[in-house]
């Protein structure tokens, strides 16, 4: 009997050797004359177990991990193909608390299926949302998205339904759907996991967006750093065209939607939606003044939806199960689920999709199990390089847009980067200014000049020079950036800088007496 | 001489094949860099005339984007992540080691032309920091030792 063995093709797993492991398992099976079917699935998102090999048994899928090349023959000796006992065995995957306790809506299929198999996609509830959408008016589709309470997952948390409604109600011969797949935020990888682990869900979400507002052309603006996502998307797009899920006559409806992947070129600022559109138009990625809103005059001056990968990938389940179903998850005005990414110095790094409302502490200790180094956690940065650093005293904040705003922090794209007590927060603040200087598009002076100046001042502070002058100078500079920048790159760099300064003054050489004085 | 001629014809071929796409410049630059490893200065007038742009506009676009390069890279380019998650897992020490091992800084190429070193700000592999990428190959939880063995292995290949 043929046994199905799963070895992930996610680049996080590949980075830990999954490619070699898949080849070695194949070879060993042949050598032993055993009949296996090797499936390259997405990752379950439990990266401390990667490469995580799974075997289909009568008791469900049994996992072994992290598997190294040297373990392969031992696994065969232990009869892992029948779920045999081995030191690396982690039991039924579905029973691992880290996985079991999640609420996977957007990530429902990821890790389970072969990402580039349309048959798998269809067998696991794929294209049910599109089927419903094809029977609805544009306004009805938009209403489901509005009812779901979905807010943009790219960072700004703007209500997706309102954006779509604006595009729907702006008449134009040509409209566009853009997927923002620039995922530049450090500590985030949920977009990448979706594109590599379930590319059809993004294609379906974009197609529904096109039907909703009457757009016939979509672009996925993908960062060039993601070659594996690029390949998966192009393969899936070709299959969707071949099966009539893209093109001139979607599933015989007479409706049209074309989709193409375009590559970025290593500029963080091109994740900002207007810079992104400049880039798509073939220009330097200079940020545009708003208004006009992209929803009214966006790509090539036409009404355009720009949405993050996770926002768009959440649309199919909303259209499948209805806006209310999605809305029933979450707290306050943060509805639905958020794929949270645990990164940095954490014992169990990975992807945790949960309804809004869990506290940072629960995430860091119940899911993440504390730092990887075993030392105390000193600070976490939430929401990418423009997100605030939070000290232990704020770990009881629930993951909720408003609760984070209340402590001058952001949820952003849901990345959490953990630092243990060896981190020097003044150095992290210096890095934030350096990053802003490197990635500034150069359009406004506070960001272009202020960031370089800011880095110099922090260097002086680190060297202990004239703190009584330089600390107020740094605060002034941050004020200028906060108030005088056109976009959030300059406008939010003060978040990590000032939060580091305010929560960890001792790292800047400020003693208690000095700050009291 | 012949090399320049073939370079020029590659550039022309790529530009003509893609110039009708809306927003064609980035796809063109990507294909040129993919084919030649970089974007040679003498390709700029060709692209400019085909797309009816000024040379300054084309050059402005090339220089705006960190990924596009105007000088030939080494045989293999190492993209080492400098961003926060990797820093939290010791990437600064690794960075020192990498620079010492290759005897080059960022944006430089080893004298034997085998390796170029470029910084990158997150590879989306923050769940296995520190990380790096060489071509399409990705590496996670990179230590000084694992870096050395990757380099030795790849050196043998190149
Ligand atoms: C400097 C900067 C970088 C950004 N990078 C990204 C990004 O990589 N991905 C993303 O989806 N949104 C990014 N955004 C937010 C976008 O401008 C925009 O709000 C988002 O794509 C809208 O989609 P959403 O409503 O689905 O979140 C960035 C914003 C700024 C200011
Ligand atoms: S704040 Fe910086 S990145 Fe944003 S528009 Fe101004 S110069 Fe460009
Ligand atoms: S911060 Fe290094 S891979 Fe994300």
Largest sheet strand order of chain A? 2-1-3-4-5
Q: How far do the termini of chain B sit from each other? A: 26 Å
Let me know the average pLDDT of chain A: 97
Q: What is the percentage of strand-forming residues of chain B?
A: 5-15%
Task: Describe the structure in your own words.
The complex is a heterodimer of chains A (517) and B (158). Chain A is of the alpha/beta class. Helix content of chain A is 41%, strand content 15%. Chain A has four domains: 3-93, Glutaredoxin, CATH 3.40.30.10; 118-327, NADH-ubiquinone oxidoreductase 51kDa subunit (Rossmann fold); 330-420, Ubiquitin-like (UB roll) (Roll), CATH 3.10.20; 425-508, de novo design (two linked rop proteins) (Up-down Bundle), CATH 1.20.1440. In chain A, strands 2-1-3-4-5 form a five-stranded mixed β-sheet, with helices on one face. In chain A, strands 13-12-16-14-15 form a five-stranded mixed β-sheet. In chain A, helix 6 runs parallel beside helix 10 (199-213) and helix 7 runs antiparallel to helix 8. The model of chain A has no long low-confidence stretch (mean pLDDT 97). Chain B is α+β, with helices and mostly antiparallel strands. Chain B folds into two domains: 2-64; 76-157, Glutaredoxin (3-Layer(aba) Sandwich), CATH 3.40.30. Helices cover 49% and strands 13% of the residues of chain B. Chain B is elongated, with a radius of gyration of 18 Å. The model of chain B has no long low-confidence stretch (mean pLDDT 96). Classes of the chains: A alpha/beta (517), B alpha+beta (158). The interface between A and B is large, with 59 and 41 residues. Iron/sulfur cluster (SF4) is lined by residues 269, 287, 440-444, 447-448, 485-487, 489-490 of chain A. Chain B: GO terms for molecular function: 2 iron, 2 sulfur cluster binding; metal ion binding; oxidoreductase activity. Chain B: Its cofactor is [2Fe-2S] cluster.
């Amino acid at each position: 009997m043929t046994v199905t063995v799963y070895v992930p093709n996610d680049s996080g797993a590949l980075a830990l050797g999954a490619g070699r492991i898949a080849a070695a398992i194949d070879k060993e099976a042949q050598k032993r004359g055993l009949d296996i079917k090797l499936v390259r699935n997405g990752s379950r998102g439990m990266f401390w177990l990667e490469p995580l090999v799974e075997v289909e048994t009568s008791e469900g899928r049994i996992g072994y991990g992290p598997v190294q090349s040297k373990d392969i023959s031992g696994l065969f000796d232990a009869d892992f193909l029948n779920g045999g006992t081995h030191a690396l065995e982690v039991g039924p995957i579905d029973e691992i608390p880290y996985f079991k306790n999640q609420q996977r809506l957007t990530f429902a299929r990821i890790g389970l299926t072969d990402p580039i198999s349309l048959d798998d996609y269809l067998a696991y509830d794929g294209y049910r949302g599109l089927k419903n959408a094809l029977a609805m008016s544009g306004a009805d589709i938009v209403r489901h998205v509005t009812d779901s309470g979905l807010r943009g997952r790219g960072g700004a948390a703007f209500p997706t339904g309102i954006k779509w409604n604006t595009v729907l109600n702006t008449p134009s011969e040509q409209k566009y759907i853009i997927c923002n797949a620039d995922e530049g935020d450090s500590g985030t990888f949920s977009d990448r996991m979706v594109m590599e682990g379930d590319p059809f869900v993004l294609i379906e979400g974009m197609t529904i967006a096109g039907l909703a507002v009457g757009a016939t052309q979509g672009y996925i603006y993908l960062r060039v750093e993601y070659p594996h996502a690029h390949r998966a998307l192009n393969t899936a797009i070709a299959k969707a065209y071949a099966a009539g899920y893209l093109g001139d006559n979607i599933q015989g409806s007479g409706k049209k939607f074309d989709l193409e992947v375009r590559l970025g070129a290593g500029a963080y600022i091109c994740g900002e939606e207007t810079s992104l559109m400049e880039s798509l138009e073939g220009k330097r990625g200079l940020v545009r003044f708003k208004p006009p809103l992209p929803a009214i005059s966006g790509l090539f001056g036409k009404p355009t939806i720009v949405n993050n990968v996770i926002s768009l990938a959440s649309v199919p389940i909303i259209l499948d199960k209805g806006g209310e179903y999605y809305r029933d998850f979450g707290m306050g005005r943060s509805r639905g689920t958020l794929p949270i990414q645990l990164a940095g110095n954490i014992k169990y790094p990975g992807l945790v999709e949960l309804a809004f409302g869990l506290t940072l502490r629960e995430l860091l200790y119940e899911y993440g199990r504390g730092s990887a180094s075993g030392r105390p956690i000193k600070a976490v940065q939430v929401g990418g390089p423009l997100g605030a650093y939070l000290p232990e005293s704020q770990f009881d904040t629930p993951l909720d847009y408003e609760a984070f705003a209340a402590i001058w922090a952001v949820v952003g794209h849901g990345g959490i980067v953990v630092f243990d007590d060896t981190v020097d927060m003044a150095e992290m603040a210096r890095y934030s200014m350096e990053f802003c200087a490197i990635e500034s598009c150069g359009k406004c002076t506070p960001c272009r000049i202020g960031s370089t100046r800011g880095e110099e001042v922090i260097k002086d502070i680190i060297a202990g020079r004239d703190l009584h002058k330089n600390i107020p100078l740094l605060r002034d500079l941050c004020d200028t950036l906060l108030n005088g920048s056109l976009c959030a790159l300059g406008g939010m760099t003060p978040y990590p800088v000032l939060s580091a300064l305010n929560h960890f003054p001792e790292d800047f050489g400020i003693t208690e007496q000095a700050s009291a004085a | 001489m012949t090399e320049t001629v073939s370079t020029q014809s590659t550039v022309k071929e790529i530009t003509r094949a893609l110039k009708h796409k809306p927003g064609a410049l980035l796809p063109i630059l990507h294909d040129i860099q993919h084919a030649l490893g970089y974007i040679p200065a003498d390709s700029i007038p060709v692209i400019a005339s085909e797309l009816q742009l000024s040379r300054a506009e084309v050059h402005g676009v090339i220089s705006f984007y960190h990924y596009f390069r105007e000088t030939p890279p080494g045989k293999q380019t190492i993209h080492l992540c400098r961003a926060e998650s990797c820093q939290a897992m010791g990437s600064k020490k690794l960075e020192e080691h990498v620079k010492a091992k290759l005897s080059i800084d960022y944006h430089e190429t080893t004298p034997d032309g085998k390796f170029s070193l470029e910084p990158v700000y997150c590879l989306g592999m923050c769940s296995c920091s520190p990380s790096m990428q060489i071509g399409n190959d990705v590496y996670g939880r990179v230590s000084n030792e694992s870096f050395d063995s990757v380099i030795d292995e790849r050196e043998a290949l190149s």
